[in-house]
Amino acid sequence: MPFRRILLIDDDTEDHEIFKTALDLVSKTAECKTSTNAREALAMLISKQLNPDVIFLDLNMPIMSGQDFLREVKMRSETQHIPVIIISTSSHAATVKLMKEMGAMDFITKPDRFDKLVEILKPIITE
Question: Residue 73 CB: number of other CB atoms within 10 A?
Fold first, then answer.
């Protein structure tokens, strides 16, 4: 199933631009909304102001961590159906295992090169 409506939650706005640029190379039809605040994004999801097909989620954020956000999303009936893909600088096996146990669909370690990000997104975001 191709994902067309994407929500990226990451406190780093530079990562937003890199992600959107990579996404534009992968898909001409995908739409990406971004948020720097997981708590605000959660409120918008609950109120149906946002209705993404998939959420890409950073873990290390102020105000509300990615782990806390994932827990909240997966315990609420109105949001638990939304696939969540963790995209983080972390790559510890225990963290990956925990996030998947908590309901994350996948875990991506942020690549150090732009072309690697494009390659990672291709099988997830398809035309």
Answer: 24
Name every residue whose Cβ is closer than 8 Å to that of residue 79 and which is 6 or more positions away in sequence.
42, 45, 46, 72, 73
Contact 27, 52 (CB under 8 A): no
Domains and CATH numbers, the chain: 5-121 (3.40.50.2300)
∠ at Cα 12 (94, 78), nearest 5°? 65
Write the single-letter amino acid at 114: F
Tell me the one-letter amino acid at 3.
F
The Cα–Cα gap between 101 and 84 comes to 12
Its pTM stands at 0.94
Q: Residue 3: pLDDT above 60?
A: yes
